[in-house]
Amino acid sequence: MKFGRLLKTTSLDLPEMEALFSVYKSLKKQVKRLPFKDQLGQQGTLETLSEEEANFVEALSDTLHQLNEMFLEKEENSVIRVERLEHELAAATAPEQLNALHKDFVDFHGEVLLLVHWSILAYTATVKILKKHHKRTGLLVKAPQLGDLLSQPFCSTELMTSIAHRVEEDIQRLAEPEQHVVTL
């Protein structure tokens, strides 16, 4: 299955992925507007590409900024939410409270894993776009954010993975038999 189709079907199932699919589709259209590398050779100069290339680099930079903003906001919300859930867990005593918290932790764990999945797809989409650009033009994109793509916040899943592990431990504690928690 082609990556664009995979991203599209994923975005249909998970609305959180819709923005990522839109960004990928938009950048792919911009790459298709760039001249082929053999056309560049026939024209003899790169000046014809400069405006189109500048537009692509600007769109790519905006996209990276947008992806980082989305990821950082979701990451911050996840940190706040795990702290709140763990605080509620520490204060909970009644079985009904513990059952409700168990459900909340399981739901939150799924959301965290979706965010990690989103991050991986965003990284893959960026790499695919860069590969398409290079294949079409033979040029490397000169965008400052690409100096080290892996250092982009949306490419880092370390914090979200550690939150997922924390939540898994909390779910295990809630599921222990001495807690008398009925799992859902």
TrEMBL record:
Residues 1-147 form the SPX domain. It comes from Tetradesmus obliquus. Signal peptide: none annotated. This is SPX domain-containing protein. It comes from the Eukaryota. PROSITE patterns: SPX (PS51382). InterPro entries: SPX_dom (IPR004331), SPX_prot (IPR031142).
